[in-house]
Write a structure and sequence with these properties.
Layout lengths: L7 H4 L2 H10 L10 H4 L29 H17 L12 E4 L5 E4 L19 H7 L12 E2 L2 H9 L8 E5 L5 H8 L4 E6 L5 H10 L4 E5 L26 E6 L2 H17 L10 E7 H8 L9 H7 L2 E9 L4 E2 L6 E8 L9 H11 L7 H5 L8 H12 L12 H17 L8 H26 L1
Parallel strand pairs: 4-5, 4-7, 5-6, 7-8
Antiparallel strand pairs: 1-2, 3-10, 8-11, 9-11
Length: 458
């Protein structure tokens, strides 16, 4: 007959149990922390404050095999962890560790980092929607205005520009100031706002007062505004150096986006305007279709004049697409955010006007063979001969479509056309559209006289 093994509690008599409790060290008074309320020692107490109790009934050997023994082992493990100076996993304080060069761990609390300067934050202000209601702002359809009220999206747009801390930024068309708030929260040094619509000026002045010394408001048109004097002279850098700490950001109206980017691309080619300071970066919004044209590759359906003119001067990146429902009022199309970084050396080493003329002529008849558009570079009297000479010298297949022409094809066309213009200076002044207008004027009197005769006969 097997005898049951007596537990420690059964082997100890009453006096031994009392002596064990009395000989244990007196625990220090516990603080009412989250850990102590749950019955666990606080990590600040250091050693374990609870005495070692005798084993309960049902435990076998080291910790027992029953459910109560398993709970006892888990509880003992937590106590041992707290005795060693570490709190249980679910009760640890938020302390991160840095490993130094010597391999030692150093504690660091992320909530209180010494020597770290707090980032600039705007004081509590009315929301963008409240400002729209306060000043009774309505988007005008003739100006293709659409408001972006979601500050998460405006923050995402600003992040595409890169690090803006201590940067000088020009925002185009701030409107009610959604993107403006995100730019100011990025801790910029100076913010220039160029707004054409006078209705938005009071709301922008409210933001200017909330960030004293950081905002400068200009009431004017960005197409005529002189950007050469917009920023301090000490920010200028050489064109071959890294881009200056200057950024252009804007949610462009659809009616202004295409002519404005063509104007700025011309400034990139001539290194004037906002690019007199160096290779200034731009982060702008466009219609999704226009953004696809700007970034289209050779052979793509959206390959166009904008693709060649932008990609031969800049690195163009389509960052992300904003659905139209995020804007108020909702446009019929989606909007894309595009980032521009000017190249150190353009891919076509020719004047901007000459490149634009060749590219515009090539894409004049988009679905036909490319030689049909190239023909419009020459007068009608010598059109066939000059076109054949240009295509042969540039080594371009005349049966290719315009969107199938690569950047090297356009480079060869522009270089050859430049040589032909040097031989015949009047060639560059030729305008195909002017010739068509003159033909219509010559046929106009005959047509009017015929209509007068038919009226008399009737």
């Amino acid at each position: 007959m097997k005898h049951k093994r007596k537990t420690l509690k059964q082997r100890m008599n009453k006096h031994q149990v009392v002596a064990a409790f009395c000989s244990a060290p007196t625990p220090p008074p516990r603080m009412r922390t989250r850990n102590s309320r749950r019955g666990w020692p606080s990590p600040s107490q250091g050693a374990c404050a609870a005495p070692l109790l005798p084993e309960r009934h049902g435990q076998r050997g080291r910790g027992g095999t029953c459910a109560s023994g398993r709970r006892k082992r888990r509880k003992r493990g937590r106590r041992e962890a707290s005795c060693s100076g570490a709190a249980p996993a679910r009760h640890r304080t938020r302390v991160s560790f840095l490993v130094s060069a010597g391999g030692k761990e150093q504690k660091r609390c992320p909530m209180a980092v010494r020597g770290k300067v707090a980032a600039f934050n705007l004081p509590p202000l009315p929301t963008v929607g409240e400002i729209i209601k306060l000043f009774r702002l309505q988007a005008q359809k003739q100006l293709s205005q659409n408001f972006l009220l979601d500050l998460r999206l405006t923050d995402k747009i600003v992040r595409q520009a890169g690090k803006l801390k201590n940067a000088h930024v020009c925002e185009v068309g701030p409107g009610p100031g959604g993107i403006t708030r995100s730019i100011l929260n990025a801790d910029v040094e100076q913010l220039l706002l160029v707004e054409k619509d006078p209705r938005f000026i009071p709301g922008l002045q409210m933001l200017s007062e909330a960030a004293p010394g950081k905002v400068r408001i200009v009431h004017g048109d960005i197409l005529t505004f002189k950007m050469e004097k917009a920023f301090p002279k000490h920010l200028k850098k050489n064109w071959e150096d890294e881009p200056p700490n200057i950024h252009i950001i804007g949610n462009l109206p659809f009616s202004v986006s295409t002519p404005l980017i063509i104007k700025w691309l011309e400034n990139v080619s001539k290194k004037n305007g906002p690019f007199i300071y160096g290779r200034t970066q731009m982060t702008l919004t466009f219609q999704k279709e226009v953004a696809e044209r700007l970034t289209a590759n050779t052979g793509g359906k959206q390959r166009s004049r904008l693709s060649i003119m932008s990609q031969h001067l800049c690195t163009v990146e389509n960052r992300f697409v904003i659905p139209g429902q995020a804007f108020v009022p909702k446009p019929e199309v989606d909007v894309a955010v595009v980032h521009f970084t000017p190249l150190v050396q353009p891919k076509i080493q020719q004047p901007f006007e000459l490149v634009e003329k060749v590219v515009r002529s090539a894409f004049q008849f988009r679905r036909k063979h490319c030689f049909r558009g190239i023909e419009t570079l020459f007068p009608e009297s010598e059109r066939l001969k000059k076109t054949e000479e240009l295509m042969m010298a540039a080594d371009v297949d005349p049966t290719l479509r315009p969107f199938q022409l690569s950047m090297s094809h356009f480079r060869n066309l522009c270089n050859t056309y430049r040589k032909m213009c040097e031989e015949d200076p009047s060639l560059f002044a030729y305008n195909y559209r002017e010739e068509l207008k003159q033909k219509k004027r010559q046929h106009l009197p005959k047509n009017t006289s015929q209509t007068e005769q038919t009226e008399e006969e009737n």
